[in-house]
Amino acid sequence: ASPVPPPPPAPPAPPTPRRSSSSPPSLSLSSSSPPSLSSACGPAAASAGSEAAAGGRTPPPRSRLRSVCAKSTARRKGRAGRRASVGRGPMAAAAAAGKAEATLAALESVLDAPPSDAAVAERVATGVLSSVSRLAGSLQAASLLRFLGRARALFGGESAAVGMEAALAVSALLRPAICGGVMAEDAEPLSLLRESLAAVKAASSAAEARAAAGGVGAAVGSLGAAAIGSHGVLQALSEALDSKSKEAAHAREAATLSYGALARALRHGFEPYGVPALPKLIRLLADKDKKVADAATVAAEAMIEGLSTLSVKAVVGALYEGMGVVGGGGRVRIECLKLAGMLATQAPGTMGPCLPECIPLVIECLNDSNAKVQTAAEEALPVLCSCVQNAEVASTLRDFIIDALKKPDKTFDCVEEVLMTTFCNPMDGTSLAFMMPIIIRGIKDANYELVKKATVCASNLCALIKDSSDIAPFVPLLLPLLEKNVEHSSPNIREATQTARERLLEGAGDLVDPAKRGTAVGACVRDSLAAAVPSLPEPVATYLSHTCAALLEERLGGVVRVQNFRHAVPATEQWVSSIVEPYATAEGGALAQVATAAVENFKSQLPEEARAILAKSGDKDFALDMQNIILAFAGRVLLRKADVRFERGHRYGLIGQNGTGKTTLLNRLAAKDINGFPQELRTWYIRHEVLCDDGIDVRTFLKDKSPAKLAGGGDVDDAFVEATLDQVQFPEEYRAAFVNSLSGGWKMRMSVAISIMHEPELLLLDEPTNHLDRESIEWLTKHLLSLTGVTMGIVSHDYDFIDEVCTDVTHYDNGGQLGKPCRFVYYPMTFRQFQQLRPEIAAGLPASGKATGAADDGTGYVDPRTGRLIPWGDGAEPSDEGGSESGTGSALSTLSNVEQLVASGSILPIRFPDPGKPEGIRTYRKPVMTMKDIHFTYEGSERAIITSASVTVTLGSRVVMLGANGAGKTTLLKLLIGDLEPTEGVGEVWKHHNLRLAYIAQHSLHHLEEYLQQTPIAYIQERFRQGLDVELSKLKTLALTDDEKAIRDQTGAVKDVVGRQKRGKQVWYEVVKPGRKGEATQWYPLEEIETQFKPYVLKMVKNYDLKVQALESGLAVRPITSAEILEHLDDFGLGSDLAHGKIKQLSGGQRQRLVICAAFWSKPHLIALDEPTNYLDNDTLAALTQALKGFKGAVVTVSENEAFVNEISNEKWVVEEAAVTLVQLRDAKAR
User: How many helices (H) and strands (E) would you count in the chain?
Assistant: First the structure.
């Protein structure tokens, strides 16, 4: 099959014969070859078979011969220039130099002196015959007749491959000779046909059968497809096949082989007659006469091998019928499985939609009692699976699906993997063909858990279908099972079944006939041809009606583009012309009208949405144009039938709630694995976080991420790196710093520098303003606006930033219905204009500040609750400080009615547990943690990050750290909670010995990477299995190094801390020391441990404190059962479905909720959060803010979100120039 179904050129240079499948790709001549061959055509022989001229065109009737040949010559001349760039090979060069006769003689001499080894001789002969074909059109009549006689002797030789190549060579040489008048059509070619047809009926041996079939193929290949009807070729072959005489066994063999010879000689030209004959060949595979069955195998393979992709659907029915044949040693099934595999390899795009009927038959073959049939089916499955275009099924799920189809006990594993997979491509019939048998098997299973999962899986797939015709074949199989399970004894299965049934019926729609569009287009073509070419034979007209419908389905049935419809008309006309030309002449423009009518008919069959896209597209230049994509995971469909259509040079802000898959979509766009993504589009993705190993400096990191390095090239020029860093104004003193020591702002600049190195045409950014201060945001804004011609897709909750940068807004629209899949709605306007146009969508956005609701003329703002434009005079004043820095403060506008929104289900709740008070702490003003005169400098750096810092934290503290990027806010927070140790000997850090704290780092999601395959329930169980928080024990002031662990076992060293007492105002600890007479315990006051013992002992003391705190909080005895954890997860908006799904399926916002939820499992007195508003949508941030305000413990946070800061804080710690300044906003008791 042709990879693409282009029409064969009409009529081309003489058709070059195809090599036998057993022939090698090249030929090396033996030393016995005469010297003249080396000089005349040695290189040609060495490359024999490497060039393939387009074949299959057949000569017209003689009355039209010369005019058609003149057209063919003009076309060949037009192609000559194009072919010159790649060369026509030594044979063409010999012909052009007038050496064709000598070259033919030299090649014939090779045939006269074959090598002694039979296999080598066959390879030499097929290679020489292939080379002879390239001399077509350059030989005289005498040479042609001489070679014809030699070739006829080879037709029936011992080597079937040589005989086939000889027939193709004759066809290739005689065809241009007839067109050029060198040989008469009714002379040798017609005589060869008549003699060969007579030989078919008279064949009495295998050699005579091969010779007769070769002659039929060579003669018809020379005369053209019209000769099949005019000379009764098929009638003669049918008579031979239908003979019942025992003496006619070889005649039947010859007739069967002739079908294969005709298919090889004419290729597409034989399909109007060959395709209807294929069922007969398939039935012959079961013939009692093995010679006939073997011949049928050869003929069927020849027909499939040269089949046009446009005819695939017309032949698969015969193969499927053969797969259903039982008995006969399984030969018919085995051969049909092989033929189906050939089609899948040659025409995957056309074979794919035919697989819903095929795969059940393959499964039957897998269960056949004949081991050979089973093996053939197992070998066919992965080949057939190559037809799948859905990226998730073709890659992520492929092995699971094949394994489950082969082994029913793997069904559960496969269904689970499907549920864990994020889908970003629609589910077409090809994908469903592989998945539905597994799902149906799961629904029938006795295991209730498998039944539920399979039902949910079916529900999801039905929601993801591309077109109702894709699901139609499975409705009769799936619907009765769901109808039955609606009354299932399990309530979970009943609920899942009801949803699946609704989605199945919704997806199936009115169950429109999948073939309706093709039937309508085919009828249109037939009617148009009847008017344009009345004399066209019926089989040819029928063939064109089917293939034109297939051609338009292939070109226009996917992405709807105006350009595709424009190009479809000339392509269809070319195809029709190439098939019609050998039979009749159409009046000028008649075939163009046939093509135009077919395309218009196809357009009229399109859905309304597709026609609307055509009407709106015009001549727009789309950098990305992917239609009907989907996004689904964890049993939920987030995007359905969404169109990603980004015009070149436009900047798109993707707006939607968390959990709708915005970041996942960017990931898939960056991976380029969505169907229809232009692979040549240079794409770069700036993620919200920079992941880098420790010890990597900025310059090295840029070199590792450079285009040359990623492409596997050599070292990157230092000057190039320095120039790039200069371009983003990266300070010289930071260029040698480790990447992980940089603040978020400088990491973002570094990411931008990397993107500059890659010169992207499509730039994707995910939450780029996270961790950035105002100055950094302004710099990023200016940089993005300076990029001309670059298309951008930006996900951000900072709507000020979106407004300033983006030219278009893309809204994830679910029609206001929670849980309903979203579609994309495009607004070609800035975000401020979008707010004015759709205030009901923008109702939760900030009410003040630049571009966050202010009217274009500055006269008012949009009320976030009503969406109404409010003049500044109506009791409102424009803010002096502008809008919220990150834009996420817009969620705070919902705080006034957050309880009602939670109750209605519009906002998922966050409820913190009551921590109680540490021992001895009775008021909210008493210190629970202090730092005095703390200094800190990173190792290897001379610049002090913190100097002489002194702070106090009480249970009533609501502290927010402020400062520029790189000022040291995160460093100060880490010093406070113990993730960093201050400079030794300078200052002190104290915290109450019973204080429980939780820390959520700026990049807190990183540690979830090792738990992605677990559920949230299992994650919390694993994290707190020992009664302690594993993540807290990793803090640098708590974790023992390997050297420190080794010291513990030394004599006299402290091995463990096992007790604690309060004696007066001091706290004493009982420690274990190994000695000569065994281990002994001693008591020491904390003050002595801090000053007299090695630092690791203090770490052990802190770890012991954590154990005591766990006991006192109930953590150590808190049951880590699923029920207890489910209740805790629910307090943070993570319901049962998410709790039982894999963490890898959670969105960024949901993972952040999980991290916060886990941190509060220990009921901490103090929660330290570094940039907590990242990844949170507006409603979630509102819920978090309310929870923090009601929390009965201390809060210390770093945040750039001014609105969030103002809402929760009662004091600010301003970090600037290594100093920390405390600003008290209100009394701690007020919180």
Answer: 51, 22
Burial, 375: exposed, middle or buried (Cβ in 10 Å; 0-12, 13-18, 19+)? middle
The sign of the dihedral angle between the CA atoms of 414, 419, 420, 422 is positive
| Structure token digits, residue 849 | 């500040």
Whether the CB-CB separation of 598 and 552 falls below 8 Å is answered with yes
Alpha carbons 228 and 599: distance in angstroms, whole number: 31
For residues 810 and 826, is the Cβ–Cβ distance under 8 A?
A: yes
Judge contact between 649 and 636, C-beta under 8 A: no
For residue 678, the tally of other CB atoms under 10 A from its CB is 14
DSSP code, position 982: P
For the chain of 1231 residues, list the mean pLDDT of each consecutive stretch of 10.
Answer: 40 36 32 35 37 34 40 41 45 79 89 88 90 86 89 89 91 88 86 93 92 94 90 92 81 94 92 94 92 94 92 93 87 95 93 92 93 95 92 90 94 90 83 95 93 91 82 91 93 91 83 77 93 91 94 85 87 92 84 93 85 77 85 71 90 81 86 86 89 84 87 79 91 87 84 93 91 85 94 90 94 76 90 86 46 34 34 33 36 55 73 87 90 86 86 93 84 86 78 85 74 88 75 66 78 82 83 75 84 81 73 59 89 86 78 88 89 69 84 90 82 90 71 47
Q: Tell the residue number behind the tokens 């700026």, with chain if given.
A: 1002
Whose structure tokens read 């025409």? 347
In this predicted structure, what is the pLDDT of residue 422? Answer: 78
DSSP codes joined into one string, 924-935? SSSEEEEEEEEE
Nearest-5° Cα angle at 515, 509 to 521 = 120
Q: Give residue 359's pLDDT.
A: 94
SS (H, E, C) 293-311: HHHHHHHHHHHHHCCCHHH
Please give the pLDDT value at position 843: 64
| Type of residue found at 607 | P
Task: State the Cα–Cα distance between residues 178 and 351, nearest whole angstrom.
Answer: 38
β-bridge mates for residue 518, sequence order: none
Contact criterion met (CB below 8 Å) for 153 and 210: no
Residues 6 or more apart whose CB falls under 8 angstroms from that of 81 comprise none
Dihedral angle computed from the Cα positions of residues 140, 144, 145 and 148, in that order, rounded to the nearest 10 degrees: 180
Q: Which residues contact 656 (CB under 8 A, 6 or more apart)?
A: 662, 811, 812, 822
Helix axes 249-266, 290-305, angle to 10 degrees: 10
- Full-model pTM: 0.67
Q: Report the candidate in 24, 31, 185 with the shortest Cα–Cα distance to residue 110.
A: 31
What number of CA atoms fall less than 13 Å from residue 1160's CA on the CB side? 29
What backbone torsions phi and psi does residue 577 show, to the nearest 5 degrees? -60, -40
- Determine the pLDDT at residue 96: 76
What 3-state DSSP class applies to 290? helix
Q: Name the residue among 1114, 1096, 1040, 1104 with its Cα closest to residue 1067.
A: 1104
Phi, psi of 453, rounded to the nearest 5 degrees:
-65, -40
Contact 296, 254 (CB under 8 A): no
Number of neighbours of residue 1156 by Cβ within 10 angstroms: 22
pLDDT score, position 1037: 63
Residue that is written with structure tokens 């930071």 in the block: 734
∠ CA 1030-1032-1035, rounded to 5°: 120
Strand partners, 1059: 1070
Query: At residue 460, what is the residue type?
Result: N
Q: Do 1211 and 959 form a contact (C-beta atoms < 8 A)?
A: yes
Cβ-proximal residues to 334 (8 Å cutoff; 6+ apart), any chain: 372, 373, 376
In the block, tokens 């979203």 appear at 822
Backbone angles phi, psi at 127, to 5 degrees: -65, -40
At residue 221, the pLDDT reads 92
Q: Which of 649, 667, 664, 668 is nearest to 762 (CA)?
A: 649
